[in-house]
Automatic annotation (TrEMBL):
Domain of life: Eukaryota
Protein name: Cytochrome P450
Keywords in alphabetical order: Endoplasmic reticulum, Heme, Iron, Membrane, Metal-binding, Microsome, Monooxygenase, Oxidoreductase, Transmembrane, Transmembrane helix
Family: Belongs to the cytochrome P450 family.
Function: May be involved in the metabolism of insect hormones and in the breakdown of synthetic insecticides.
Cofactor(s) the protein requires to work: heme
A GO cellular component annotation in the UniProt record: endoplasmic reticulum membrane
Entry's transmembrane regions: 295-319
GO terms of molecular function: heme binding; iron ion binding; monooxygenase activity; oxidoreductase activity, acting on paired donors, with incorporation or reduction of molecular oxygen
Membrane topology: Peripheral membrane protein
Chief localisation class: endoplasmic reticulum
Length: 494
């Protein structure tokens, strides 16, 4: 026993010694970096842990003061950057291809996915999936988008000439139904029965994930799993995983029956999951765990981004009725009074696209984008040390007067080619960039065009809110703390 105890003691001492040596190197490497004052052991964690939902506002406040700065969350070093030149270097460097350490907190349910994976296997899986998301089935997905949005628009008639309501609350069932049918390949019935089990479970998990990131005493897995939020997190992810596993099993049985030529078996409508399963049955390129992990990534990305961007876009057009009229005139000219939006329309809806882009500029899909630094990396004025985590802060970059004229105003015309030609390409990062860029941006933007076009064509939207009223809270994407309050009138009543 004494030998075992001695060996354990030596091993523990080595772990502590290695950690301290590494930590000391990081402290020395960033001693000239600006940043807020720290306290022993916790660093800057108390700035965030006491109110995680306000974290993005705290980070933005520091970002306005320092173009580049450091934060310590416990023993974890974060370097925050806002300069487009630095963002370009980070996004394009092979030294930053690995996502930040905290994405590992989603294991063991989500493993090596598009959210938290890296390396050859993740890249190979991405090459399989990206064409499925944005490829030849996109025109068919547009049919589903139109069908579900028409249902949603008709249901909104109950809100005509009424008091203000939250457009996000009213839209989430429609977004879920589009997700169910185009991504998972199951009937979209959220607008019938209000079932949002899968997306709500994953949203809960992501809220807790951010709380864990900024709370260093929850970083150790054994402590987190014993906590209330840890139990809720694991339950939410397991719920999503179990439901997806059930759907995958059913679909595999269906496609094997089709291959055998069993009578009475009909081929389902295409969805991203159906296309992926067909590919896997032919190539054996992915196992069920990998499929589940990447489906969770797609579900989270689609549901959260589309719902958030649409809600903010409608609110922006309500605040700016002259720009709302421009979108409406363009939709009427390009699409007509009641036609569906087809894929060939998207490229012609220029002002609509700019309104969505301007919304994303003010309220980024990813308010901060994080990467691990796997080797020292030189940026404009500093060296990012190996072992640190770099976080790009689009919320600050997108609103900096260094890169944008009157950045706090909603002005879609800033995205006209003549107004964009001298702007640094990384001053606007709507869907990340480099090897970790969003694989579903075309898919999501197509859906948003359908939603905005149908909505603005049918309704005049108004609000008592102003741009200055909107307070932001931290989520996987930026959300409005005080909601998205609008009222509507039928366009034919005007």
């Amino acid at each position: 026993m004494s030998v075992v105890a001695m060996l354990c003691g030596i091993h523990f001492w080595k772990i502590v010694n290695d950690f301290w040596n590494c930590h000391s190197k990081l402290i020395k490497a960033v001693e000239l970096f600006p940043g807020p004052r720290t306290i022993p052991l916790l660093g800057n964690a108390l700035e965030f842990a006491t109110n995680p939902k306000n974290a993005i506002n705290v980070m933005a406040k520091f970002g306005m003061e320092y173009s580049t700065y450091r934060l310590w969350i416990g023993s974890k070093l974060f370097i925050i950057i806002t300069n487009p030149k630095d963002i370009e270097i980070v996004m394009e460097s092979p030294k930053t291809s690995k996502k930040a350490f905290f994405y590992k907190f989603m294991e063991p349910v989500v493993i090596n996915s598009m959210i938290n994976g890296h390396g050859p296997k993740m890249r190979a899986n991405r090459k399989i999936q990206e064409p499925l998301i944005n490829g030849k089935c996109l025109p068919f997905f547009m049919e589903t988008f139109n069908k579900q949005v028409r249902r949603y628009i008709n249901d909104l008639n109950s809100k005509l000439n009424q008091e203000e309501f939250d457009i996000s609350d009213e839209s989430e069932y429609c977004v879920a139904d589009m997700l169910f049918e185009t991504v998972i390949g199951i009937p979209g019935v959220g607008q019938d029965n209000g079932d949002l089990t899968i997306p709500h479970a994953l949203e809960t998990a992501l809220d807790i994930l951010f709380q864990r990131i900024v709370t260093p005493w929850l970083h150790p897995t054994f402590i987190f799993n014993l906590s209330k939020c840890g139990r809720e997190f694991n339950a939410a992810l397991e719920l999503g995983k179990d439901r997806l596993q059930q759907i995958i099993n059913e679909k595999k049985q269906l496609y094997m029956a089709l291959a055998r030529g069993d009578p009475g078996v009909e081929e389902p409508k295409p969805s991203i999951l159906d296309l992926l399963i067909q590919n896997v049955l032919e190539t054996n390129a992915m196992n069920d765990q990998e499929i589940i992990s990447d489906m969770i990534a797609i579900i989270v990305g689609f549901y959260d981004a589309v719902l958030g961007i649409f809600s903010f876009t409608i609110l922006m057009l309500a605040i700016h009725p002259d720009m709302q009229d421009k979108v409406r005139e363009e939709v009427a000219f390009v699409i007509g009074a009641d036609d569906d939006v087809v894929i060939t329309n998207i490229g012609k809806l220029n002002y609509t696209r700019m309104a969505i882009q301007e919304t994303i500029r003010l309220f980024p899909v990813g308010p901060f984008l994080s990467r691990e630094i796997t080797d020292d990396l030189q940026i404009d004025k500093y060296i990012l040390p190996k072992g640190s985590t770099v976080a790009m802060l689009p919320l600050v970059t997108h609103k900096s007067p260094k890169y944008w004229h009157e950045p706090d105003k909603f002005y879609p015309e800033r995205f006209l080619p003549k107004n964009s030609k001298n702007r640094h390409p990384f001053a606007y990062v709507p869907f990340s960039g480099g090897s970790r860029s969003c694989p579903g941006s075309k898919f999501g933007m197509s859906c948003l065009h359908v939603m905005v076009a149908h909505f603005i064509r049918k309704y005049q939207v108004m609000t008592t809110m102003s741009l200055e009223d909107i307070k932001l809270r931290t989520h996987i994407s930026v959300r409005s703390l005080n909601g998205y309050k609008v009222s509507i009138k039928n366009i034919n009543q005007l």
